[in-house]
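Exam prep: given the inputs below (a chain plus calcium ion), describe the expected output before reading on.
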Amino acid sequence: MFKRIFELFRLPTDNLDVVRSQLSAFVHQVPLLYFLLAANSIVVAWTHSDVAPPILSIGACYALCLICAVRLFQWMQDRKRNLPDKHAARRLKTIRVMTVVLLVLFFGWVGALYCYGDVNSREHLAFYVAITVNTISICLLQVRSSAFVAISLSAVVFVVMFGFSGDKYLIGITLNQLFSVVVLAYTINIHYGSFVDLIQFKGELIRQNGRMQRLSDDNFKIANHDALTGLPNRRYFFARLRDIIDGKRQTADGFILGLVDLDGFKPVNDVYGHNVGDALLMQAAARLTEATGPDTFVARLGGDEFALIIPEHLSDGDLLTRSRVISAALQVPFDIDGVIAKVSASAGFAAFPEAGSNDSELYDRADHALYHAKANMRGGAIIFSSEHEREIRREAHLEQVLRKAHIAEEFSLAYQPILSRSTGTVVAFEALARWTSPSIGVVSPGLFIPIAEKVDMIGDITLELFGQALDQLATWPEPVGLSFNLSARDVASASTIMKLILLVTTRSADPQRIDFEITETMLMQDFELAAQSIQALRLLGCGVVLDDFGTGYSSLAYVHRLSPSKIKVDRSFTMEMSHDRQCRTIVQSIVGLCNNIAVDCVVEGVESEAQAVIAGELGCDLMQGYHIARPMWPAAIPAYLAGVAASAGAFRPQVAVSGRSRRSG
Ligand code: C2E
Ligand code: CA
Ligand code: CA
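Solution:
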């Protein structure tokens, strides 16, 4: 019982939500409270000005009103301040103390006036105390402890001052007030309970909302960010791109979309494993973010491809300068737990709105520029231009014509000999695809092979051409062999590889006389898949040639695992060999590698005697190029072979050749 009574006067300091809500509810009541107290007191001072000395009636009232005004002023000031938690509870205590102090002062004043008045004035005093305290208690509804202090104090004062007055009417008023106080206390208690429940419910709701918000923030982060690097992912990137395009359309401003792709990442991943690859990507993402600055939006689109949105329009010069900063940042070797890995970055840029007016168009343009950067200037950047636009149109037209092409009739092969300088004999002919379209004429393989890959026609073209090549091989004298180019899609297609094998066996061709040429870059796309296809061809007895060697970050691990039958030094080295010492060193080291692992080395693109001599000096015996012979039609081959046989010694080396030739010896 006592505990329950004590509870009514207790402050809810253990529940901060309730404390803060009480304070904020009370703040609105404060002016009313003081107004009521002052106004009612002024009325009492007026009715008692005749019966009591002015110093007590008017003077004391004046002093009490002044106290009310000062407190009100303090409250108004404090209201603007954001209270820390511990001060909030203290403020509540102050309210309770001030309630007691003020009521004691007022009741003291009433007690003093009581001594001077007659029955009428005392009845007014009783009415004043009852009505004022009851109204104040209602104002303090949410601050229960103060309300109960006011009620209890008034009840005591009432009983002491008026209950024992001996006046029947005053005793009656006292009883009326006591009944009212009981009902008032009961009502206040019930309302206070609902108030606390409401606050607690509201607090729980806010906390629940907070949890939901955090959960939804987490979900947003998971759905829109790349788990490895923490960068925005592909989905977020496209959403952002669309938003920016919408925004820029309104303001008629421009911006730049960039795609950055790491060159040489795949070999790092394959050779050192995924942990090193992942760590490299994380470091690369951090470097990219730092190098591009805070205004640029950086996302990881997947694998080793990143996207940038530069929110302003830059001149080509400025853009290339920025791109050089990015590329320099990524070129610094990565140290991953002691493994030093080196990659570079190619970039493609497209400007809005010139290059594309919507997200997919702009992305395709930047991708086109990136593709060109990777193909023609690895580690560099290309900005999409009107020339690229024309190229895209040309390719689209080619694609349409190719889709309708009659493969067996329109595709044929030219053959270019591979010669051994030491013996002066033709070791093999490389088959080079030719497309003669009735509508657009002769199209070079460099143009149509990528399109045929894209429209999924490459498999049919390869099989048709390989059939033609086997027919030719059957007409050539032994041991002249065939070197046949495969595309990346062929190498990745088990069905094409099986059909090639089937062609060799059904035509009873000698697999020992057939080499398949694959480029280094194909290996880098999916080494395991390529290795399986190569294994199948080698099991048949065919050779495998690593074409365009030196351009594609090949690691020795690749070469060892594939154990190719030949390696072809890329044409670009041959061209530079005569005037670039570094180039000569590279060729020399490739030739050295071939000698070490007992693999034939072919220098391709030999265009002059000088290049042939240097190649010979560097230790390479097998050569191919315009200087030896241009690609020729099959009909020209017998005469060519006869000519070579007749002038056999003409190609004999002028210097000692240390390179070896598998079929020439
Ligand atoms: P590749 O395999 O490196 O073929 C050699 C290319 O260099 C041929 O160009 C050839 O004509 C050219 N060439 C030969 N000697 C010289 C020279 O001394 N100087 C210069 N500048 N060029 C020389 P082509 O026939 O235009 O073929 C281009 C590329 O197309 C080939 O490069 C090969 O990657 C691809 N390709 C050709 N035929 C086929 C094919 O049947 N299937 C596939 N998948 N790709 C093929
Ligand atoms: Ca080739
Ligand atoms: Ca080549």
